[in-house]
Each structure stands twice: as structure tokens, then as C-alpha cells.
Amino acid sequence: MPFFAHPIGRVDSASLRAAAGIVGIEVYNSVCDHLTGQGYARVHWDESLAAGARLWGLAVDDCHGYVNEEGFGFVMVRTQKLDEASILAALRIGAFYASTGPAITDLRITTDEHGQPALLVRCSSCRHITFYGAGPTGGVLQPNPASKSARL
Average pLDDT over the chain, rounded to whole? Predict the structure, then answer.
């Protein structure tokens, strides 16, 4: 199940999309972020989504002997079993989220005070949560400390 690792400076988004069998992209890499300041592949992912590619996004540490680069990017999967087959199946269908901080405990579509669809997120403390989507379909959630949740 191929994911394209740390694409910044290595490939443009059109070439990434043209790669055979690519399932996703590493959208955050802590080593690249801390060593070169190029750990985020936001533009690559956004351009790919806008062009119609369905690529999953991973956030990872990619530690190959670096010190103090661990614990910044991670992937949480939704699965009944913690075995390799179940984890890979969850990754394959997109039953996961990538994060550089908050751990999400609840995520659901609800309605706002005007009856419009809204996204409700409950998570560990954070400054904000950014949801990426094609063009303007993403958004940034600011936490509501009183309810320990945020709405988009």
C-alpha cells in the first residue's frame, strides 16, 4: 500500500498523482519539519484533492536515528483488532486520521443553531485543528474550552 513520503523538493503534485498505485501522501514529517522547515505537504495534498485524486494523508515522525524527533506526527486507526491485517485494512479504506497533536475522541456531523450541517470535534487540548479538503472545503476549528469541543 504505497504512500508517497516527504514529497517537498522531491516531486510536484502532478507527478505525485501520476505515480502508479499511490494510495496516499505523507502530509507531515517531523524530521523534515525540524531539520529543514519543510515537513508539511499541504500544497501537494490540496492540489491533488482539487484535481480529483483521492489520496489519504499520513502524519509521521520518520525517525531514522534522529534524536528528539519522535512524538510529533501520528496516525490513529479505527479497527476492532490491533493486528497488522486490521490496521492495514483501516488504512486502505481511510478509517483513520493523521495528527500532529490532538487526539480525537469524537467526530460527528451535527447541525448548528441555524439548522445547517456542522462538524463537531471533541479532542485533547490544542490550539486549533485544521481539516484539509479540496480547495475551500477544509477549515480550521478553534476550540471551545467550556465544552471541550469545536464546530466547523
Answer: 85
